[in-house]
Design a protein that fits this description.
Number of strands: 9
Number of domains: 2
Structural class: alpha/beta
Shape: globular
Largest sheet: 7 strands, mixed
CATH architecture of the largest domain: 3-Layer(aba) Sandwich
Radius of gyration: 23 Å
Number of helices: 14
Strand order of the largest sheet: 5-4-3-6-7-9-8
Order of helices and strands: HHHHEEHHHHHEHEHEEHEHHEE
Distance between the termini: 58 Å
CATH superfamily of the largest domain: Vaccinia Virus protein VP39
Length: 364
């Protein structure tokens, strides 16, 4: 038997000094961002952003006194936030403040761009890193329920503003004939409802319709029920423990999957079950991360974030289930459409989109 020649060592090239300097600037920026993310979680939990927004320009002593916190910690936190550009600093009077844009992103929970909770979600990926690293070696999955609890809190609070801003005002109206059905009284399933933010938003907007949230994660269902109580117990919403393929019923006008179809081990089987759940004129609404169909379309900051999340959360979550198709968070419209058509949907289209999401409408 002929022996194969050993591989030739890669040619070592001398780095371009300017390119190396530019790349190191990028790396240091990413290191700073990675280190600073935990401070956003601290600021959110302690109410530092909100307090600074409420009391206006303040010294570290002012802010610490207002919240009854240690001044030295607050001073260092504020300095880090100013270095990040997350708060403003006036050197003349040594006061810190939050401008209108920073307020929308970091302290106003009703803002459509309130993103502070995303850092709690990100924190869970560091906590869970050993599990994911081992999964690289074994090929095994890591289920959604196996993540740290801050994953679930971060997801609920991060996704809710976008759902509140877009779901009733833009996404549902973009579907054919669905808005009027919900206004007059329809039956809706929210599969993979998590903590119930999307379900409750729809139930409050369409009081004549019935909404049922399904999720396989028992602690998420418990939290969803608690969230419904916090919202005043809308009589037209309830939450049930069920996987996507086991959700009961066959007379739904609308079935929704918000940012979760790509997480499923068997999205084709789940979508096929959804088709069986729908009335003949029913609609399947799938909200997914916005992505192009080719990797080169997604080599941008949004794609970077989604691919990272997909590596740490979505792909291992799918591989932990039967089939383990592992679509990933950047599957793209073409691949998702293939899944839906294989499941038996004959009409599939992109109904609308935002910078972060695309809404796909599928009909039998």
């Amino acid at each position: 038997m002929a022996t194969m020649a050993p591989p030739r060592p890669a040619q070592i090239m001398e780095p371009d000094p300017q390119k190396l300097e530019d790349f190191m600037h990028k790396i240091v920026g990413d290191m700073a961002a990675a280190m600073s993310g935990s401070l956003v979680v601290t600021g959110m939990k302690l109410g530092l952003y909100k307090a600074l927004s409420d009391i206006g320009p303040a010294t570290s002593a002012d802010l610490a006194k207002h919240l009854e916190l240690d001044e030295r910690y607050v001073r260092e936190w504020l300095s880090a936030q100013a270095a990040s550009g997350f708060v403003d600093y006036n050197a003349a009077d040594r006061r810190f403040s939050i401008n209108a844009e920073q307020r929308m992103a970091l302290s106003n929970e009703d803002s459509p761009v309130y993103v502070a909770p995303a850092f709690e979600l990100i924190a869970s990926t560091y906590i869970d890193e050993p599990k994911i690293t081992e999964a690289f070696r074994t090929g095994a999955g890591v289920g959604w329920h196996e993540h740290h609890e801050c994953m679930f809190r971060g997801c609920e609070k991060f996704f809710r503003p976008g759902y509140r801003a877009n779901l009733v005002a833009g996404w549902i109206p973009a579907l054919q004939d669905v808005f009027d059905k919900l206004k007059n009284g329809a039956k809706v399933a929210d599969i993979g409802c998590g903590h119930g933010a999307s379900t409750i938003i729809m139930a409050e907007a369409f009081p004549k319709s019935e909404f049922i949230g399904f999720d396989y994660h028992d602690k998420s269902i418990e939290r969803a029920r608690e969230a419904a109580r916090e919202a005043g117990d809308p009589p037209n919403v309830r939450f049930e423990l069920s996987s996507a393929k086991d959700a009961p019923g066959g007379d739904f006008d609308l079935v929704c999957c918000f940012d979760c179809l790509h997480d499923m081990g068997d999205p084709v089987g789940a979508a096929r079950h959804v088709r069986d759940m729908l009335k003949p004129d029913g609609t399947f609404m799938i909200v997914e991360p916005r992505a192009g169909d080719d990797l080169t379309d997604n080599l941008n900051p949004v794609g970077r974030m989604y691919y990272a999340a997909s590596t740490m959360i979505c792909t291992p979550g799918s591989k932990a289930q039967e089939v383990g198709l592992a679509l990933g968070a950047q599957a793209g419209e073409a691949r998702l459409s293939e899944v839906l058509r294989e499941a038996g949907f004959s009409k599939v289209r992109r109904a609308t989109e935002t910078p972060f999401n695309m809404v796909i409408e599928a009909r039998p």
